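Recap quiz, item 2
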Amino acid sequence: MPENEFEKKISSEMQELKFKPSEQVWLRVEERIKKKKNRRIFVVIFLLAGLALLGYWQRTNLFGEQKNDIVKTVQNDSSGEKQKEENSQSTNEINSSTTKQKTQLTGSKEIKNTTGKTVNDKQTDSGSVIDKKGIAVSKNNINKQKKSKEGTNGKPGSIKTKKDNKPEASTAIVSANSKTKNGVVDDKSKDLKTDPETIAKQKDVNQSEVKPVDSKIDSAKVVTLEQEKNVTATDTLLKTDPTKDTPSQTVKKDPAEKKWKWGLLITPGISSLNDNEISFGGLKSADAFAYQNPVGSVTGTPPPPRQNPSEIKAGFAFQVGAYAQRQLSPRTSLSLGLQYGYYSNVLHIGNMRNSGNTQLFSVFGRNANQVYNAGGDTTKYTNSYHFIELPFLFQWQLNKNKTKPFIWSTGFIIGQLIASNAIMYDTAFNGVYYKNKSQLNKTQFSLSTGFSWTIANNKRVQWNLGPVADLHLSKLIDNPFENKRYLFFVGLRTGVLLNSKK
Amino acid sequence: MDTQKLIKECIREIPAAQRQLYDHFAETMLGVCYRYTKSMDDAEDVLQDGFVKVFRNLGQYKYEGELGGWIRRIMVTTALNFLKKNFRYNHEFSFDNENLHPVTDDNPEIKMTGKELADLVRQLPIGYQTIFNLHAVEGFSHVEIGKMLGINEGTSRSQYARARALLISWIKKNDQVNFKTGVYAGK
């Protein structure tokens, strides 16, 4: 600081020095500010495009090769003619034989099915579906063996011959042993399920602070120095004492920024199920081919057309929960949370079938009280899924504004399904929907990404708002009669972050 | 002028507010830039760079201390960067580790205006000029100056002492300085 009159005089005279700048200075300043603004828009567009490409790449590479077993089997089935012949006997015929089968199968503890595997006569809820799937996949073998077993009515094998050629419905009937509600196939059919080997690679995110081109101006330091001195410009004259120089000019980090901050969030939005592409509704052409074409007859009487699975439409969804956030660097942070997630999708299906029907009971067991015809548009059914989720998100601030940051967050969510009323498609009875929780994959792993803008920031709380998208990597529905379905959620996240006290 | 409201509007990038802020501080800040450079064109270049930084970083201003002081700091830092980057200055903008030069107690009477004094300071070599401005006018300590310029504290003290001694000698030879042109005619 100036220690004598000379410095004081110089300083007081120089502080008053003023010059009027030319108008060109402002014009150039204005131009550069606008350029910066435009550049920011391009950066956001670039990031969004990158995000979209990343999402597309993940979908293509992680799920691109997954196909429905049933679709493959039906398309590759070389014994279509035999199948048509058997199918022409229609549902009524099957139903009539069911009564016979019940008496024939009574008392038998084990039934050899056409694949050579053993069908255990056990009571489980999910057995019928697994049974159906197993036989449907091994259809070619079944057809070969059927020839040798023709004419052996009255034996367990002959019953299965009919089922062989109409695998979905007939298998269900096999499982509907008169003494049991459902049967369990103790074979290796489960191995044919194509479990998605999805390994999500998290890219390293460069956490280094992004500095502006002209980063040599350390604004933070400027501010800090200003705080430390806490004097006006004129006051600084009095402090210019070289004998009192202190090495206190390092930038002090705010310890409050390193602490965990707590917040609450609510994210209303929509969710749907998709298979190989991110879409909200629409049946893939492969499905239509698989479910419509194979059914036919060579004996003259066309069977009733099998109904396709209904179109899945997006439904209301929301997430609500709490989270803790910790600053990793001035621009990056990590957040961990606990949230409840409600997701739904809508199906337009046909009427509910008579729950008193013994055939339904024999096929679907205790689930027979809520069976709907596939196709039609008389019933609007909402599949709902209730999850408890643990999100782990990495957040990266894209702008430099400390009070109103614009943040890109990405990470993963582990979720556990706690309840659902979802109905599943089954080709039995020419296409029905029924409840079967065993086909739901209860543990879900999903990727999450989103942006958030801080819309208000005061000393106590920070309000932020922004879009978020969750893409489930684990298949939600593993139904052998449908493509594997993955949950997808988009919403508008509103969060409040409690600023820690300084 | 409601400074807080003006700042918020500038953060929201409202052009009228940005212009108002510029008009309010531009003249004073050009005075700051003028002291650190050798020409008015360079001073305006520094002013331009400085205001761009001000508008880009205004969100970081925490309303602690005067806004004018905060902007002044940015202008000073911008001026130092300009001197380091600009060839006309950077070949002179080097500091040798010289021995500590004692500060003289000589306090001549100054009858010059601020403009005249500034012109006199601008006649100093760029290193002397910078350190003199930082210490005598802005009030930075030699430790701070050392960190800002990447030099030793002792070097800063020495340079300042030499600059001060030179200025005092010029002021004493006041009749030899043509303040209208700002050109030192001594020696």
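The first strand of chain B starts at residue 177 and ends at 178.
Residues 175-187 of chain B have pLDDT under 50 and may be disordered.
End of item.
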